[in-house]
Amino acid sequence: MAKYKTEQIRNVALLGHGGAGKTTLTEALLFKTGAIGRMGRVEDGSTVSDWDAEEHRRGISINLSVIPVEFETLKINLIDAPGYQDFVGEVISSLFAAEAGLLVVDAVSGCQVGTELAYDRLRELQKPRIVFVNRMDRENANFTNAVQSMRTTLGDEKIVPFQIPIGAAESFQGVVSLIEMKAYLGPEGKEAPIPADYQAEAEEARITLVEAAAEADDELILKYLEGEELTIDEVRHGLHVGVKNCAITPVYCGTATGGIGLERLMQSLRRYVPAPNERSVTGAKDGSEIQLESDRNGPVAGAVFKTIIDRYVGRMNYVRVFSGKIARDAQIANARTGRTVRVANLFSVRGKELQNLDELVAGDIGVMTKLEDVQTGDTLCAPEQVVTVTLPSYPRPLYSVAVAPVSQNDSAKMGPSLTSVAEEDPTLRYQNISATKQTVLQGMGETHVDVAVHRMAQKFGTNVETAAPKVPYQETVTKSASAQYRHKKQTGGAGQFAEVHLRVEPLPAGGYEFASEVFGGAISNSFFPSIEKGIKSVLDNGVIAGYPVVDVKAIVFDGKEHPVDSKDIAFQTAGREVFKMAFKAANPVLLEPIYIVEVTVPDEYMGDVMSDFNTRRGRVLGMEQKSNRTVVRATVPLSEIMRYSTDLRSMTQGRGVYTIEFDHYEPVPSLLNSTLGSCGLS
């Protein structure tokens, strides 16, 4: 691959609904530019983008894939991101590394859920976007309907066609450029006059395009309002400014499988996607915020936006260089750890294919291998000038399963395997829950977690069983109560004796506290640690249902000892048993975790969501309007939202998204409390 300067690079994230044809489009562009000899098929698992075994098994994209395409004097780094909602972390990483997004929309289905979510994310990040209406050769393909569905659903009137199609379905022949007012026909993009049947439509559509270009530039709007004709170069300039400022969303069309419209699409990426040096990113140096420009001579700053742990290659870190350059054999520092390492291996990447590189310049994307303790989110910089790149925020996991090793051999490998899959994906987490004695794997949805489990088996040889996780309840008391217990054991020799009088009280401050009100030496001071040790042995396993005890104060107020038979073990036993008795007498209750749930849904589904919260014992805290969507904020018990991601998708046809965050514990309602307490169920 040739060497490219920063201004010759374009980084574009391919986004959209699952099945819209993003991976096929990537394959078609590779074929169009001669990078591959023939196009692969998603169904056959033969595409350059989908190289992972899980992607072949499921027939969908799971990982982001970097696919550089060489076009004219440019290198276009296409970042093919999954369209399935569970893999939103890959979308976030893709947009972090890219200057713009290319939204692929199906010509029959129009704006779908994935389109809407991707567009919202681009709008939130204020990154330029270009739309490609794909599959114009499909039966019932309708370009006009697809554009209108986007304007209606996305609430954006500045979605402007830069082309109109010539024909549709089997009669799809090519496109009309509304800027040049020329037709481009067939896979070769052969230039031709506009067919007479399309002349009037093209002229009408061009008026909208020119108006959008004029509105983007003050000088152009003055010229346009004075009735002067804008030149092609002036129109392109206005459109470039409008796209760069996110005021205009261009719409192109074509067919990836038929190869029609692709040359014009690549021209649009060249003209309207900002070069890396046209945008800056926020970073930090010496505790102060700085703006990092994509300048080859600037401070070295490369951010790791993807990590893959391969059993043969080892650790592969995908790096986007935001400033400076990184050369092979250079010494670089990890801003997070402070460690300095040598860049022994530096590659350009296309799918799973790696090609040696001498250096990676500002704006480009590459892969480094076998770097110790480098993970997703780390900034690689010069040891003498430590800077960090501000990272994107990833959502908290929404779906959990309890995992357990299948065999003793798997038990030894489960921890490292969980660590590896979590390092590969920032939206995957795992933790050991002491309250339930379970290891819980957390992800964005059922498919996301299932992929991680299969990956553990395939890549790391670790087989685990999954089950629904238990809810981490807690136990506490609601009133003060006292009890006494005498432990007496005679075995022929030295016996055991201890008597403890104990009171338990609710502890509003939280936690656990131990105190003594014993006066006159009824119990020697040396035995109080033994009593507390006995009490602590109960705290983790609970009294009424096997859950940890919290928010309780234990007070020893009297007791007895024997000059010969009293010893440490006797007071441990007495302390344990008297605490249980006093706890049961103090009106114990179970506490359940309460989460704040924030659901964002289109207005038409708000009523269904509100009604559903009522059935889940939820309490609505408030609502907020955001464009054509409503944000509902509520507190809901964790036990009621363990599988909420699946339910919400069903309820809103996939258009609802939500976040959860732990808020507090509160008593379980009396009916449920008695049930859980009597059977120990979760």
What report would you give on this structure?
The chain is of the alpha+beta class and 682 residues long. The protein folds into 5 domains: 9-274, P-loop containing nucleotide triphosphate hydrolases (Rossmann fold), CATH 3.40.50; 280-389, Beta Barrel (Elongation Factor Tu (Ef-tu), domain 3), CATH 2.40.30.10; 399-461, Alpha-Beta Plaits; 475-586, Ribosomal Protein S5, domain 2; 590-679, Alpha-Beta Plaits (2-Layer Sandwich). The chain has 16 helices and 37 strands. An 8-stranded antiparallel sheet has the order 18-17-23-14-15-22-19-20. A 7-stranded mixed sheet has the order 2-3-1-4-5-11-6, sandwiched between helices. A hairpin with a 7-residue loop joins strand 7 and strand 8 (174-177). It is elongated. The two termini are 58 Å apart.
Summarize the helices and strands and which ones pair or pack:
Layout: E1 9-16, H1 22-32, H2 53-58, E2 65-71, E3 74-80, H3 88-97, E4 100-106, H4 113-125, E5 129-134, H5 143-154, E6 159-161, E7 163-166, E8 174-177, E9 182-185, E10 190-192, H6 196-215, H7 218-225, H8 232-244, E11 249-253, H9 262-272, E12 280-285, E13 288-293, E14 301-310, E15 314-323, E16 325-327, E17 331-334, E18 340-342, E19 346-350, E20 353-356, E21 359-361, E22 365-369, E23 379-381, E24 388-389, E25 399-405, H10 408-424, E26 429-433, E27 438-443, H11 446-460, E28 464-467, E29 474-477, E30 481-489, E31 496-506, E32 512-516, H12 528-539, E33 552-560, H13 568-585, E34 588-602, H14 606-615, E35 619-626, E36 629-637, H15 644-652, E37 657-667, H16 670-679
Parallel strand pairs: 1-3, 1-4, 4-5, 5-11, 6-11, 32-33
Antiparallel strand pairs: 2-3, 7-8, 8-9, 9-10, 12-13, 12-24, 14-15, 14-23, 15-22, 16-21, 17-18, 17-23, 19-20, 19-22, 25-27, 25-28, 26-27, 29-34, 30-31, 31-33, 34-36, 34-37, 35-36
Helix pairs in contact: 6-7, 6-8, 10-11, 12-13
